[in-house]
Amino acid sequence: MADERANEAADEAADETIFSKIVRREIEADVVYQDDLVTAFRDIRPQAPVHILLIPNEVIPTADDVKPKHEPALGRLFTVAKQLAEQEGLSGGYRLMVNCKDDGGQEVYHLHMHLLGGGPLGPMLCGAVRDERHPAAGANGGRA
Ligand code: 5GP
Questions:
Q1: Which residues line ligand 1 (CB under 6 A)?
Q2: Which pLDDT score, from 0 to 100, does residue 137 have?
Q3: Which of 61, 86, 114, 117 has the fewest CB atoms within 10 Å, counting from its CB?
Q4: What is the CATH number for 48?
């Protein structure tokens, strides 16, 4: 029993991220939306005029850790992103992006969706790895 509690405590500690502190309002952030499943706040280093991060309140470290039980929270990310895009006046369009692990450029291991907008965002990737198996990829997005 004591072992079980110790394991649970260790799991909780491992799940702790800077973003879970934002969810619990233990550190400051410009929170623009929160409900029982997700939280959205402005990125501290915005890469576009509008740059909001949307996260599940429960820590899912990366997109690689997604399980069927996460579907309600992950679905909510999209409906809230759409709502925030409308609130922010992004009628011309926007980009939703999820980075996964090191190669994907993920910095914080608490799955998050970037909502970027406020003007033309340019090409999707700036430092793309060329893949010899798919030479068209990266040049014109694979279009013929
Ligand atoms: P990633 O590279 O993991 O996809 O994106 C992480 C994002 O979190 C970055 O854009 C970074 O600026 C943002 N970020 C990191 N720490 C904080 C923080 O403490 N507060 C806020 N609001 N954003 C953060």
A1: 18, 29, 41, 43-45, 53, 99, 105-108
A2: 55
A3: 86
A4: 3.30.428.10
